[in-house]
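Request: When convenient, would you put together a sequence paired with its structure tokens?
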Amino acid sequence: MEAIGSKACECIWTCARGRTRLACELWLCGSEIELQVVRNSRLYGLYRFAERPAALTFAARLRDTFASNGWTAVVNN
């Protein structure tokens, strides 16, 4: 995880379709967990959760939804 100010961020997955990139990032904000979906460096969606497992489950379902619509997973190195 990377510390950013008082927050910590972790990239959960990245998908691509053509030149467009989507990244799902998990942010720890105090006791709250945020999932931010970023499309080409712009915020596309924001979801809040009380617990990490619920956030990760939602992130996986969201990735599967994008994959079923033609998006391809990108391996983060």
Q: What stands out?
A: The longest strand covers residues 7-17. Confidence is low (pLDDT under 50) at residues 1-6. The two ends are 14 Å apart (CA to CA).
